[in-house]
Structures are given as C-alpha cells and as structure tokens.
Amino acid sequence: MPKFVKSSLVDQIFDYLQSEILKGTWAPGEKLPSETELAASLDVSRMSLRSAIQRCCAMGLTETRVGEGTFVRDFNLRSYFTELYRLKLLGRNPNEINDMRAILQLGSVRLAMTDSISQEKIGKLEELFHQMEAAADRGDLPKFHELDSDFHRLICSLGNNELLFLIYDAIAELTDDVMHHNVEKSVAAFQGFSRIMEHHKELVESIKTCDMDRFTKAIMGSRERSISYYPNL
C-alpha cells in the first residue's frame, strides 16, 4: 500500500481512491472496505479518509448508504456534471447554459446537413412535435417538459457525432432545468404555448428543408428571448 506525506493528505487519499475506482479495483456497485479497514491499510486517520470519501461522493464516484457503507457508483459524465450542478459549482448562470445548448444544437444540425438527415429521424422529430402540440392543448406542463427534452436530445443526435451527443447528455440535468424555466416564463409572457410551438415548428421545418440559415435564425431568436427572462444576472 502507498505511504502518504502529511501535506495535502486528503488530496492524496482522494487521488488514490479515484485511481483505484477508475481502473476497476472496485467495480460499480461494489462496497468499499470499511473506514476502519481502509484507513488502517493506507496508514491514515479515519477523519482524513472520510473527507476523501466525501469528495468521491461529491464527484459522483461513490455513494454512502446509511447503515450499509460506501459503494462505487456507475460513474458517467452525466452524474459528474449533475453533482457539480447540485453543489452549485457549475451552471449558476442560466444564460450560459442556454448558450451551450444553442451551440451544441447548431453544431449537430450543421454536421447533419453536410451529409443527409434520415427520413426516420425527421419522422420522429415531427411525431414529438405533434405530441408537444397535444400536451400544450391539454395544458399538461409536465408532459410538455418531457417531450421538449426528448425533442432537443433528438436534434443533438442528428449529427451522428457520439462525442457531441455525449456532452449534451452529460449536461442534460442543467439544460433540462433551464429549459423548464424558459418554457414557464414563455407561457407566462405570451399567455400560452403559441410562441413556443412556433419556435419548434421553425426548427422542424428548417431541418426538413435543410435550411441552416433558417435553423440558425430560430435558435438565435430563442436565445435572445431566453436572455430577456434572466435580465438581472
């Protein structure tokens, strides 16, 4: 087992635990040794070890269950960004999140239009749009939010770029949270869903006709409206 110096001891323990988890010494779902056992094997205090484990939990690497112990989580980028968002270390400015979402959608659609977009995906996009219309007509806001999230996820998959989609998926909790607020503010400002549905129709039609300028105009118009929803930042 490694020996640790006193300076930045918690950092060194955290680095060790992180390294062991990422290389698979403890598999996802597996329980870590008890604090007493692990502290003894590393020759560190339980207090220092506990601080390092708390950091692992904050980063989404592990989770501590009361009365059971600490377990390795199935780590992914989404859990990482979600924890940072939950701890208010990331995404405190809604306009920055709106900008990030806009950039990822513009990039994905630009890539898609360079090649061709399958009729199957266009059909799925149209179907989601019609389902959103139905939810809007019913005034079913929770269902509308769910469909809206699926709609924009599909847009970000059009470019067939796994890394781009992975980034969008990783920040899904940030973007979904802000999108929900955007929708609610738009419904209040325009007294209904009409403006939102016009925007989504423009996205669908511009993708169907491979009109990048029209798509860009729709995305940037939405961005400008979103900025007005958070004027005091």
TrEMBL record:
Highest rank taxon of the organism: Bacteria
Keyword Nucleotide-binding on entry: no
Pfam families, sorted: FCD, GntR
Protein name, entry field: FCD domain-containing protein
Alphabetical UniProt keywords: DNA-binding, Transcription, Transcription regulation
Keyword Transcription on entry: yes
Family annotation (InterPro entries): GntR_C (IPR011711), TF_FadR/GntR_C (IPR008920), Tscrpt_reg_HTH_GntR (IPR000524), WH-like_DNA-bd_sf (IPR036388), WH_DNA-bd_sf (IPR036390)
Boundaries of every HTH gntR-type domain copy: 7-75
PANTHER family: TRANSCRIPTIONAL REGULATOR, GNTR FAMILY, UXU OPERON TRANSCRIPTIONAL REGULATOR
